[in-house]
């Protein structure tokens, strides 16, 4: 009896106990020191909203950012292939099949690539990566540090002579709070800082009535 | 006296025409969408190394070449609609327009396209259809067909058999191919003899998951009109094309997959070569000869995506289809005495080729100093790839060192690596540069393709090779 239950449970693609929807602000920062002595820094933010069935990410545009250009930059024909400003929605059905879509609110369009195009769009098809922002198995290969950490969180490190990776993992939220990689000589680093918040009452993917779905290839000519 | 004069005039016409006229019973027109000169060179190195040649460059060993100007009636840089239409009709028209007179507008005065979804809303007084070489061939009793890796209703194949003021009206274009139905293009007589590619969505009604708003099932209608239909690669393979008079195949709801994905994921779609050979088997039954258009249509799509690997794989698939067609035609018409083969592109892209890499380097890799094989570096000390694009979406805020590996998509040899671009645009654009044209066969006909010519001139040369 117990065994049967176990089999049934493990056959389910995701746990029965649904984690509540979660929202977070992701801050991406990178630093590069060039050979001619110039320090280049970049910073941008994304909103992450996730539930057991869907992960939504959307670039946050700071006040005062220049308007993005709507002028036709091709030959008057289609089309905007820049997905950086679109909501990126990865969801999974009851069978665990993942689907990637881009939600473009300015013209109420949902752009749906076909699965063979996911790679080109930068989606590796991993729910683990989309939902947890990393592969939790990788944490097991890292060294747990005794360094001071916020409640329910712990630092993990992986280091070789050339590179390092540092992760602050919050086991209660099942969410990293910081992921940093860089090279040991300090000329390059990349950091994502994750600040959890409250999920909105209405989730972004519940507000897509009236949107029209087009294929990614409809943007090609 | 009068008679003598006339005879002399006839002789004159004959001697001028003898350069090409009437030597081509068959014409196969190969079009690599967006396959500009850099793509040709890169694909050559990718498959045959620096010292080799693509089949499309060699053809029968006596290939003639020309450079083609591709500008459209209203644009310095064309899209695929007017450029292919120029080849097919000899008329320069506006961007987006499919085989219509130069006064045809794709959009109204306010700039709104004459489109409702995938249906055309072209006003009746908005230009006139102009005859295509395919229609003319059909009217002379030849068999005609179009084969592509895009939807069969996409701009390039559409320009061979349809007329519409906006290329995106793919529902309208589909109806033009269905003999006897509403919206049929009567210039096609008893209909195209071969139509192979993708795009079931424009042939099926909404209720059946398609895009058609008129409720018609055009695939069923085509079957009623006597077309053998194939929906997969294996179904096409099972058809005995030498005994099939009319062949229709749609192998994807939209475009076919990129060659790389088709092979990697073992997708049951035919290769461009498979489709080309089936088309020749069907069309070759006509004693009067045939006109066949074959498009490598997704070279352009991979270029817009700045994904050079898929560009090169689709270009090689296109080149392999040309090789297969050449071999097959040599069997049917030794020495290609009566068969003209033309290979060209409709426009360029912004892909370019950085120097000074070492001979033998992977064309998809980073530039290696030709003197000592070390990585070439930019001013910030970062290495860079040989192939890059003038514009497109992938312009990193900070360039980082690139790894010539395939472990993940940040590594330059990975299938999904996107080449870097100089100007940041949301979508990589076509380029305005000239494209190459290669021609062979049909006695002296191929020799008429030379120099720098306008794309509209190609129509005249093909027409005259046919002797029309
Ligand atoms: Zn294009």
Structure, explained:
The complex is a heterodimer of chains A (221) and B (468). Chain A has 221 residues and is mostly beta strands. Chain A has one domain: outer membrane lipoprotein receptor (LolB), chain A (Clam), CATH 2.50.20. Chain A has 3 helices and 12 strands. Chain A has a 12-stranded mixed sheet with strand order 7-8-9-10-11-1-2-3-4-5-6-12. In chain A, a hairpin with an 8-residue loop joins β7 and β8. The longest helix of chain A has 10 residues. Chain A is globular, with a radius of gyration of 20 Å. Chain A starts with a helix and ends in a 6-residue tail after the last strand. Chain B is an alpha/beta fold. Chain B folds into 2 domains: 360 residues, Alkaline Phosphatase, subunit A; 62 residues, no CATH class. Chain B is 29% helix and 17% strand. Chain B has 14 helices and 17 strands. In chain B, strands 7-8-6-5-9-1-10-16-2-17 form a 10-stranded mixed sheet, sandwiched between helices. Chain B has a 3-stranded mixed sheet with strand order 12-13-14. A two-stranded antiparallel sheet of chain B has the order 3-4. Chain B is globular, with a radius of gyration of 23 Å. The two termini of chain B are 29 Å apart. The N terminus of chain B is likely disordered. At the A-B interface, loops of A face α12 of B. The site of zinc ion has 5 residues of chain B, from α12.
List the helices and strands and how they pair.
The complex is a heterodimer of chains A (221) and B (468).
Chain A: H1 2-11, E1 22-33, E2 39-50, E3 54-60, E4 87-92, E5 98-104, E6 109-112, H2 127-132, H3 136-140, E7 143-144, E8 153-159, E9 163-170, E10 175-183, E11 188-197, E12 212-215
Parallel strand pairs in A: 6-12
Antiparallel strand pairs in A: 1-2, 1-11, 2-3, 3-4, 4-5, 5-6, 7-8, 8-9, 9-10, 10-11
Chain B: H1 2-17, E1 26-32, H2 37-48, H3 55-58, E2 64-69, H4 80-89, E3 115-116, E4 119-120, H5 133-139, E5 143-151, H6 155-161, H7 170-176, E6 194-198, H8 218-224, E7 228-230, H9 233-238, E8 247-250, H10 259-264, H11 272-283, E9 290-296, H12 299-304, H13 308-332, E10 339-345, E11 348-349, E12 351-353, E13 387-392, E14 421-424, E15 430-431, E16 435-441, E17 451-454, H14 455-466
Parallel strand pairs in B: 1-9, 1-10, 2-17, 5-6, 5-9, 6-8, 7-8, 13-14
Antiparallel strand pairs in B: 2-16, 3-4, 10-16, 11-15, 12-13
Helix pairs in contact in B: 2-13, 4-6, 4-14, 11-13
The structure holds zinc ion.
């Amino acid at each position: 009896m117990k065994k049967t239950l176990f089999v049934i449970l493990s056959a389910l693609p995701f746990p029965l106990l649904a984690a509540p929807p979660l929202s977070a602000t992701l801050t991406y920062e990178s630093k590069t020191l060039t050979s001619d002595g110039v320090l280049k820094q970049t910073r941008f933010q994304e909103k992450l909203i996730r539930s057991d069935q869907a992960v939504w990410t959307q670039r946050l545009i700071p006040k005062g950012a220049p308007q993005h250009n709507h002028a036709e930059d091709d030959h008057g024909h289609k089309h905007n292939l820049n997905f950086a400003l679109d909501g990126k929605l990865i969801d999974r059905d009851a069978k665990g099949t993942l689907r990637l879509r881009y939600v473009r609110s300015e013209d109420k369009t949902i752009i749906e690539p076909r699965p063979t195009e996911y790679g080109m769009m930068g989606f590796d098809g991993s729910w683990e990566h989309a939902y947890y922002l990393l592969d939790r198995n990788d944490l097991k290969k890292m060294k747990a540090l005794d360094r001071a950490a916020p409640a329910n969180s712990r630092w993990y490190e992986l280091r070789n002579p050339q590179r390092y990776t540092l992760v602050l993992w919050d086991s209660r939220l099942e969410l990293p709070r910081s992921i940093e990689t860089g090279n040991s000589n300090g000329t390059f680093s990349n950091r994502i800082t994750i600040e959890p918040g409250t999920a909105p009452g209405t989730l972004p993917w519940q507000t897509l009535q009236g949107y029209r779905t087009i294929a990614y290839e409809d943007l090609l000519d | 006296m009068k008679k003598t004069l006339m005879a002399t005039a006839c002789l004159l016409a004959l001697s001028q025409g003898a350069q090409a006229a009437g030597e081509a019973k068959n014409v196969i027109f190969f079009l690599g969408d967006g396959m500009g000169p850099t793509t040709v060179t890169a694909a050559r190195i990718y498959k045959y190394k620096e010292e080799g040649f693509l089949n499309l460059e060699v053809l029968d060993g006596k290939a003639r070449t020309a450079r083609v100007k591709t500008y459209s009636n209203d644009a310095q840089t064309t899209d695929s609609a007017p450029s292919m239409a120029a080849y097919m009709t000899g008329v320069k028209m506006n961007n987006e327009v499919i085989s219509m007179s130069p006064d045809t507008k794709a959009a109204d005065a306010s700039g709104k396209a004459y489109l409702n979804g995938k249906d055309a809303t072209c006003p009746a007084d908005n230009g006139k259809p102009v005859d295509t070489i395919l229609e003319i061939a059909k009217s002379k009793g030849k068999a005609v067909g179009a084969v592509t890796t895009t939807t069969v209703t996409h701009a390039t194949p559409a320009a061979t058999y349809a007329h519409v003021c906006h290329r995106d009206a793919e529902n309208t274009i589909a109806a033009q191919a269905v003999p006897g139905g509403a919206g049929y293009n009567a210039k096609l007589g008893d209909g195209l003899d071969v139509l192979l590619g993708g795009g079931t969505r424009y042939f099926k009604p909404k209720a059946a998951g398609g895009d058609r708003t008129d409720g018609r099932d055009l695939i069923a209608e085509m079957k009623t009109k006597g077309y053998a239909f194939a929906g997969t690669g294996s179904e096409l393979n099972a058809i005995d094309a030498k005994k099939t008079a009319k062949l229709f195949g749609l192998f994807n709801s939209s475009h076919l997959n990129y060659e790389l994905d088709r092979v990697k994921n073992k997708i049951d779609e035919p290769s461009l070569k498979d489709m080309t050979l089936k088309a020749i088997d069907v069309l070759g039954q006509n004693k009067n000869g045939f006109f066949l258009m074959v498009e490598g249509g997704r070279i352009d799509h991979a270029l817009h995506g700045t994904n050079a690997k898929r560009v090169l794989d689709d270009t090689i698939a296109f080149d392999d289809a040309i090789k297969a067609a050449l071999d097959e035609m040599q069997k049917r018409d030794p020495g290609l005495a009566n068969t003209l083969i033309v290979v060209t592109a409709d426009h360029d892209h912004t892909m370019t080729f950085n120097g000074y890499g070492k001979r033998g380097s992977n064309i998809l890799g980073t530039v290696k100093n030709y003197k000592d094989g070390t990585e070439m570096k930019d001013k910030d000390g970062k290495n860079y790839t040989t192939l890059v694009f003038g514009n497109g979406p992938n312009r990193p805020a900070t360039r980082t060192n690139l790894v010539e590996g395939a472990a993940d998509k940040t590594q330059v040899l990975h299938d999904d690596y996107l080449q870097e671009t100089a100007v940041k645009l949301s979508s990589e654009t076509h380029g305005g540069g000239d494209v190459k044209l290669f021609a062979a066969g049909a006695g002296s006909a191929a020799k008429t393709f030379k120099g720098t010519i306008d794309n509209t001139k190609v129509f005249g040369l093909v027409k005259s090779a046919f002797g029309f």
